[in-house]
Amino acid sequence: MPQSLNQLEERLQYRFHDAELLCQALTHRSHSAANNERLEFLGDSILNCSVAAILFRRYGKLDEGDLSRVRANLVKQQSLYEIAQTLGVSDFLRLGEGELKSGGFRRPSILADTLEALFGAVYLDGGFEAAYAAIERLYTPVLEHVDPKTLGKDAKTLLQEYLQGHKIALPQYTVIATHGAAHNQQFEVECTVPKLDIKVGGSGASRRAAEQAAAKKALEEVQKMPALAKPKAEKSAKAAKKRAAKAAASEAKKVGQLSTAQSGEARESKDAKEAKDTRDAAAGSGSVPAMTASVSNGSTRTAAAPAEKAAEKTADKTAEKTDAAKQPPAAA
Asked: In the 8-state DSSP scheme, what is residue 180?
């Protein structure tokens, strides 16, 4: 194996068992029929799967939409081209004469495709774990400098989100000039943020490109204004203070309602007790005459009993005398 390919293996931190796979991964279709296009197809899928797994483990709070956005930007041509440059892939490419003369070894599309072919070759040679490990090693330094909240968002979107977050009206874009022939026009667009007194311009081959260029400049100007962060912090503090005061008032109201309810219950209990005492007093005064009457009647009955007995004795004696008179005298 040429020494140069050994250097590439050292940079990849992977040693191929099948050297032909590495050679094929570095071969462009302009060089020969045994090129890297099929390996590129395979490597593209391995790369997407690996990056998805890396992001899933690294960013536990990102939702599906944000994960997809970040992954799409990490596996796009420009990102792959930059990684290929760090590996020095252009030094190992096998190109046809035409591509060599036209500078194909510097073309982003060729370098990005070759990097994907290398991932496919590592997968075939050492399995998914080997390919995943190689991809993770290459992407870890990239992820250290990535903001998942902003990666993949264009300048217009970032500017709009920034202004909305600070309650500022959206920017205005105006085409102020166009230059060149109809098939090769150059647009000049002005971006203004009236509330912040920002007015910047941008140019591009299309109106959209010019607006993006102007938005990027406006975003840079806006982010240089530290005063924007202070009102937001003050507003958050005021909002928190307001919420605390509202909570305290609500708690005080609950305590007041509870005290009122307890006072009402105490008054009702007192009134009920007084009413009960009144009823008991009335019931007690009504029972005394009845008892007196009962005692009086009893005394009358007791006094009448001796007279009745005396009358009965007198009647008995009279009856006895009468009976004795009627009986004949005893014989002598």
From this structure: S
